Amino acid sequence: MQCPTHNSFIYNSSLCCCNPGLLYNTTTNTCSPFTVSGADAFFVGTGVDYSLNIPEAILPFESIKKYMGFQNLFLEATLVMIVSWLLFCGFVRFGKLGDGTTFWYKVRWWISRLDVCFSTRHWMDDQKVVEKKKTELGGAFSIASCILFIGLFAALLYQVISKRTIEVHSVVAANAPDLTSFSNDMEFNITTISTMSCANLQNLGTLFIINPGFLDFRTVPLSTFAKFSCENTTKGPMVTLKCNNCQLIRGKFYTSWQFVDLPNNPASAVGFEFNLTSSDRLDKKHTSFVSGILKKGSNMNAEFVTFRGKDTNILEFDLFPRIYRNKHDLKLIQPLFHEFLPGSSFGEINHLRDSLQNSSNGLVNVTLNVNFISSYIVEIDSQNVLGPVRFLADLGGLYYVSIGLFFFVLVQFEYKFKRLRHEDKVMRRIRNRKKAQEHWEKLRKYVVFTWGRGSLPHDDGSVVLTSCCSGILIKSNQNEGSLSRRRQHIRKDTISFNKKVTMPDDKVSQQEWSGDVDNRNAHRQQPLCSADGIPLPPSLEIQSDSEMSALEIQKNLQDLYEYNLMLRQELVYAQSMLHSLTSNDSASNGQ
Which of 9, 15, 5 shows the shortest CA–CA distance to 362? Predict the structure, then answer.
């Protein structure tokens, strides 16, 4: 290696090495510290997926879980929507109601129509029948209750989907037939993180077995248990032990290997990486594994160290037999990391230099120690924590919490502010007045278009306003001429209702309308009405301090209907008089 300018030192007068705990990078020709993040330090996988078996093309549930995370996201979004809605309702209350045609009145009216939760729960006086009324405050709190319920319901559904079951582990005693039924393919990968290669590897090929209950141990060739190999990787040499249909040895067994110094390539390491997997022979999709990176032991004080020397570095693992009852009695061997016992290491430059210059320390010992727990078998099953009854109970609880919370706030508002108890009457009174005005306009137009189409003679186009038939204003002519040549229909804009009607004199009799034809101009200026006169329209009985009941509205409409019948009779009588005058005028002109 070319000696970097920083974080390196010289030994044996010409050789270069990185400082303790630093790894040489051949691409950049630098020595950088070997660091391990908390997420990469240790990881265990069970190999069994308990999520919904939904195809990724239909619904990427795992991606949703990754980005949505926890139920707090639903709750935070619900809180933001409730606050935004209440602020909007509070803002529109500053708008004036007016006469019922303003924009603010329409918005506030529709908010009051949304009172679906508290329309029968508002403040009521004692000994009064419960009335269904919708207020603006009730509409605001009703929608807030619905938003809260929907948000809590979404959080409940997320909980049902992601945590609908729990995993129950039970330990049972193992016997020989149970252990022999485990047929797994296993693989052990141990990488020594360093600048070494597989050429530095020596003494790999012996398996040491320690039988339980015996003081001695025996050795067998490693090839009888697994196939082993070494592969050069970017991180360093990786030793692989792989066996198909492993018949695991009861008790403990271990194997060791060493990396020795080569010319210009000393034996040293800054850490170890491991990956142990176990999979079912018949179903390869189920895999149990454990992986991680080891930088130093728990008993080391130095932050950066370099492993080198005679003392061996021991990586201990445990193997647990597991039976997954919820997966058709799937049998898997679960590897678990137990402990890392560091060997010889150096954290100071001078100590590391002395070790590199001493040929007796020119090696790195690695030992893989495995303990097969054969006395017990772990049985795993799933239990549903949320049945249909509990789901309905939770759903009902969420509903009552959503309604009860805002009902309490509503009662407090109406208790503190008495005008809020009857705020619906103000808006309904404005709306009823507006509707009554619209209905009256429709009735007026109906009378105008139905009974206002007549024809009167006119000479010079001057208009004489005569009070006739309860205030109907008609267009009259003052010049002489042929009526047949100047007859026109009464225009709609010359007919209207006059609220201040001038009643005809009681002394006027029927004989005034049967005078001489020469006095027809004088007759035209007289009211074309009956001698008895027409009474004033019926008054609408409306009390300003209360609402109009249905009986009062029905009574007023009945009075208007009777008045309309009387008005029609008078109009018919006036029309007959006009026809009589027209006939007499035509006869006199013919003579």
Answer: 15
User: 3-class secondary structure for 238-305?
Assistant: EEEEEEEEECCCCEEEEEEEEEECECCECCCECEEEEEEEEEECCCCCCEEEEEEEECCCCCCCCCCC
Regions in the chain scoring below 50 on pLDDT: 39-40, 49-59, 61, 67, 453-531
- State the DSSP code for 204: -
At residue 228, the pLDDT reads 93
Amino acid at 329: D
Asked if residue 137 lies in contact with residue 413, where contact means CB atoms within 8 angstroms, the answer is: yes
Query: What string of DSSP letters covers 376-431?
Result: EEEEEEEEES--HHHHHHHHHHHHHHHHHHHHHHHHHHHHH-GGGGGHHHHHHHHH
Interacting residues of 216 by C-beta distance below 8 A, sequence separation 6+: none
Distance of CA 41 to the CA centre of its chain: 35
- Is residue 314 within 8 Å of 308, Cβ to Cβ? no
Q: What is the pLDDT of residue 581?
A: 83
Residue 58 corresponds to which tokens in the numbers above? 């239909």
Q: Which residue has the tokens 């252990």?
A: 179
Q: Quote the tokens at residue 362.
A: 């020119």
Quick one: pLDDT at residue 484? 38
Compute the CA torsion angle 423, 424, 430, 434 (nearest 10 deg).
170
CB atoms within 10 A of CB 114: 18
Residue whose entry in the numeric block shows the structure tokens 């035509």:
586
Q: Which pLDDT score, from 0 to 100, does residue 459 have?
A: 40
Using DSSP, state whether 439 is helix, strand or coil: helix
Measured torsion, CA atoms of residues 429, 433, 435, 440, in degrees rounded to the nearest 10: 160
Instruction: Answer left, alpha or beta for residue 293, where phi above 0 means left and psi between -120 and 50 means alpha.
Output: beta
Which pLDDT value is given to residue 191?
95
Phi, psi angles (nearest 5°) of residue 394? -65, -40
CA distance 222 to 482: 137
Q: Residue 247: what pLDDT?
A: 76
What are the tokens at 555? 């009574």
Q: SS3 of 538, please?
A: coil
Helix intervals (H) in 93-135? 103-113
CB 145 within 8 A of CB 119: no
Rounded to 5 degrees, what are φ and ψ at 436? -60, -40
Two structure tokens written together for 443: 């009735």
d(C-alpha 251, C-alpha 210), whole Å: 6
Q: CA quadruple 494, 500, 501, 505: dihedral positive or negative?
A: negative
d(CA 581, CA 513): 9
345: three-class secondary structure by DSSP: strand
546 has which bridge partners?
Answer: none
Q: Which two tokens stand for residue 505?
A: 């004199």
Q: List, as one string, the DSSP characters of 12-60.
A: TTTEEEEPTTEEEETTTTEEEE----HHHHEEEE-S---S----TTT--
Token couple for 462: 């001057």
CA distance 305 to 343: 11
Distance of alpha carbon 153 from alpha carbon 159, whole angstroms: 10
- Report which residue type is found at 159: Q
Amino acid 587: pLDDT: 67
